[in-house]
Amino acid sequence: MFKYVELCVDLRKGRFAKDGLIQYRIICQQVNVSSLEEVIKHFMHLSTEKAEQARTQAQALEEALDVDDLEADKRPEDLMLSYVSGEKGRDRSDREVVTPWFKFLWETYRTVLEILRNNSKLEALYAMTAHRAFQFCKQYKRTTEFRRLCEIIRNHLANLNKYRDQRDRPDLTAPESLQLYLDTRFEQLKIATELELWQEAFRSVEDIHGLMCMVKKTPKPSLMVVYYAKLTEIFWISASHLNHAYAWFKLFSLQKSFNRNLSQKDLQLIASSVVLAALSVSPYDQTCAASHTEIENEKERNWRMANLIGFILDLKIDRGDVLSRSALLSELVAKGVLSCATQEVKDLFHILEHEFLPLDLAVKIQPLLTRISKLGGRLASASSVPEVQLSQYVPALEKLGTLRLLQQVSRVYQSMKIDHLSRMIPFSDFSVVEKIYVDAVKHNFIAMKVDHMKGVMMFGNMGLESDGLKDHLTNFAESLNKTRAMVYPPPERASRLGEILPSLAETVEREHRRLLARKSIIERRKEEQERQLLEMEREEESRRLMQQKITEEAEAKRLATESELRKKQRLLKEIEEKELEEAQQLLQDVSKKKKGKKPLLDGEKVTKQTLLDMAVHEQIKEREEREKKLTKLSKTMDHLERAKREESAPLIEAAYQQRLLEESVLHEREQQLEIELSQQRHEGDLKEKNRLVRMLGNKTIFQERVVHRRQAEFEKRRAEREEQISRMIQARKLEREAMRKKIFYVRSEEERLKKLQEEEEARKREEAEQRRREEAERKAKLDEIAEKQRQRERELDEKAERQKRELLARPGIEPRPIEPVVPAPAAPIAVAAPAPGKYVPRHLRQGVPAAPAAEPRGVRPDDRPTLSNDRWRSDRSDERRPPAFGAGSKSTWSSSRPR
Fold first, then answer.
1. Which residues are CB-contacts of 832 (< 8 A; sequence separation ≥ 6)?
2. Rounded distance between C-alpha atoms, residue 566 and residue 578, angstroms
3. Is the distance from CB of 180 to CB of 131 less than 8 angstroms?
4. pLDDT at residue 390 above 50?
5. Packing angle, helices 2-11 and 33-57, rounded to 10
6. Which of the 8 DSSP states describes residue 600?
7. Is 40 helix (H, G, I), strand (E, B) or coil?
């Protein structure tokens, strides 16, 4: 199957690849779905690789892909022009190389989506293919193909809901399937907004909302953040400021509730966006003067928008009662959104919504708008939220400020000059202000008239007394009355207030504790309810998975038993039917192409191979005929062009000669006219010279005076310049001299420090070398002393041994008998001392130790105590002799030998 797919890709036969994959899906559907998945992945990989190779070969991708529709075939005029024209440049080669491969890649995506649609076992591959198709449209800016791709996916979902009795139909109630479908729709929404296809983006939002309503489940908060972030962009582009503000409010609520990593700065920026979006909404209703039909359509539209945003409305309730600017602002204040915003946004909200400043309103909000326009940026802790730029709300806020100023001025004044009003609004021209108040008057927000002839604006309905002015004076009187009561309070009221104040603090504290307890109880109940819902969903999911597993196992066993029985019969039957259909189709094609002629000989057997050979022969013949026709057509057009040029050559020559005559006559006429004009100009110039020659003397005097004055000024400035240059040269000389001295001092100091460091290092090296030499000499001396000591000891040992042998070798001296005690292996053989009553010569007394008076029998000679003088000599010898490596105590006889 891999070879078949590779051959289809090399030949760009998308139709054959689709037929082969459909047949392979029928074979592998119930047996080995993973094999079909691998083949489809290989198919898409090859198509993408070929398209990328073609794109890298082309030098100008924009010209190569300058096609509005990848599915449109070439027109006959383009084919004819490509054969007879002389276009041999890079554009034509790019169109012939790159565009066909991108058409094939787009056809590959469509084929794979069509094969994998509504298949529960290949949902992941279907989602991956849709994502890759979206990326293809995004990378190469294919808006037409993107619309078609969205429509294809939309139709697949509609067919899935329409035909619910399919065998391998995906179950949208399963969490995995629902997540794949939602991811695909959210990717579609992101690509639509990046390509700025706002209508398609809105349809994608409706698809996501319909999918959520279908399964009765809310996606993850991270996906809902993307959903509302894209809704804010769509509503802002469509100038639906109220829906834009509500979408921002929902986005703020999600971020504050579920984003644990949200920083205070990002939260403040999002809250500021919510408040400014709410303030940007027009303060009056746009549909107050519309017809009944328009009002009903607007109500239906607002109901749909509210459902998309997440606010469920009743069609019988007026839209202004639920989705309105005042309701949104009240909710922002109640939910604490305004308290999270920046100080500039808070001040702006207070000025525009609460304060009454008819003369200073525009002047006070202008610096706030300037600071707000500089706020914004990308959010670090909320990656799903787009880049927030508060400057986009400045024009709407300027319009709101203008409306508030006009509204407040209309309550105080009856008339005002246009120039004065223009100075009161510094951030807008009067033409912009005029458009704003015309729209406000149209929607009954302000009652005013403009007299451009007098340059005056008149407010109110021009009646006997203005309602706005009357209300304003009443409010002013009430405010004065309250102020007087505060300055001069009645005595009984003051005492009553003193009685109430102590209990008021306790009441407030008690109410506060009650509200906190109620809040904690509500939170616990909500957590408990959520936990119960999660447990119920988990149990339901486990039961469903268990039942599904049992069903799948039973179905797999049944299919395994049935497929083995019917496999051979079905395959043989399909092969025979397919060969019969192909033979019949080829026979019909041959009959049509023969135009009624008898395609086969009498008595000849109709076989598939015979029909295939005839079809191939007919195709080759038709191709040769087409080539002959094209060759004949090219020759005919060449002859026609040659004949046209031969006929037009004498006509062109005659026209050229006629043109030469006409141009020569025209040249002579224009030359004569130029001569006459030159003479007239010369005469006029002479008259002008004679008129101006009288002023020549005055001109010379004035010129000399001006030249002398400028010369003196020039000399003065040159002297000043030379003096300044000399001062600058002297200052620079002094500066260079100081710099040279400083550099010399720094270098000298560095050299001195370097020299000191080198001397210190040399001294340390000499001391280390001296210590090494002394250590080596001391070690050599110690080694020499030790060697002499060992040599001396060896000589003493040899001498003692020689004396012992001499004593043993003399006759008449017998050794003292000793007990038969086994001597120690390490002890040497001792010489027995002579008997105490026997005479010993003097020359033999040196090597024999003195015997004690009495010695017990059975004691070895080595165990006898040595003399004091021998012990002293032995100690001195031991002190002078260094211990040998690994040696223990010395032997007994060696310590008592004569010196």
1. 814, 815, 816, 817, 818, 861
2. 18
3. no
4. yes
5. 30
6. S
7. helix
Integer angstrom CA distances of residue 263 from 266, 333, 373, 415, 850: 5, 21, 21, 51, 105
CB of 275 closer than 8 Å to CB of 307: no
Per-residue b or e along 791-811, where b marks 16 or more CB atoms closer than 10 Å to that residue's CB: eeeeeeeeebeebbeeeeeee
Chain position carrying tokens 């999911």: 541
And the tokens for 113? Answer: 């989506």
As a whole number, the mean pLDDT across the chain is 77
Buried-state track 280-309, b at ≥16 Cβ within 10 A, e below 16: bbbbbbeeeeeeeeeeeeebeebbebbebb
Closest CA to 130 of 118, 148, 142, 113: 113
Categorize the per-residue pLDDT at 63 as very low, low, confident or very high, splitting at 50, 70 and 90.
Answer: very low
d(CA 301, CA 281): 17
Distance CA 394, CA 279 (A): 10
What CA–CA distance (Å, rounded) separates 594 from 808?
Answer: 145
Crossing angle between the packed helical segments 467-487 and 394-412, to the nearest 10 degrees: 80
Residues 6+ apart with CB under 8 A from 189: 201, 204, 205, 208, 226, 227, 230
The answer to whether 220 touches 254, Cβ cutoff 8 Å, is no
Give the residue, 8 or 381, on which the prediction is more confident: 8
> Is residue 846 pLDDT above 80, yes or no?
no
> In this model, does residue 322 exceed pLDDT 80?
no
Q: What are phi and psi of 459, to 5 degrees?
A: -105, 160
Q: What's the one-letter identity of residue 658? A: Q
Average pLDDT (730-739) is: 94
Which string of DSSP letters, residue by residue, matches 205-240? Answer: HHHHHHHHHHHT----HHHHHHHHHHHHHHHHHTT-
**Cα separation, 122 vs 117, whole angstroms:** 8
**pLDDT at 656 (0 to 100):** 92
Residue 853, pLDDT > 70, answer no
| Predicted local confidence at residue 318, as pLDDT | 46
Query: What is the torsional sign of CA 135, 141, 145, 148?
Result: positive
pLDDT score of 290: 53
The Cα–Cα gap between 667 and 760 comes to: 103
The structure tokens 């808070």 sit at 346
Task: Tell me how far CA of residue 667 lies from CA of 655, 662, 670, 674, 678, in angstroms.
Answer: 18, 9, 5, 10, 16
* Mean pLDDT, residues 179-188: 85
Distances (CA, A) of 735 to 306, 347, 742: 77, 57, 10
Write the single-letter amino acid at 793.
E
The answer to whether 156 and 118 are in contact (CB under 8 A) is yes
Query: Could you give the CA distance from residue 343 to residue 356 in angstroms, rounded to a whole number?
Result: 20
By the 8 A CB rule, do 272 and 390 touch? yes
Question: Residue 431: what residue type?
Answer: S
Residue type, 746: V
DSSP symbol at 459: E
DSSP letters, 611-631, are HHHHHHHHHHHHHHHHHHHHH
What are the b/e assignments for 322-340, b being 16+ CB within 10 Å?
ebebeebbeebeeeebbeb
Cβ–Cβ < 8 Å for 129, 114 = no
**Are 358 and 408 within 8 A, CB to CB?**
yes
Closest by CA to 414, choosing from 376, 448, 380, 367, is 448
Tokens describing residue 286: 């746009």
CA 424/CA 414 separation, integer angstroms: 16
Do 402 and 428 contact (CB within 8 A), yes or no? yes
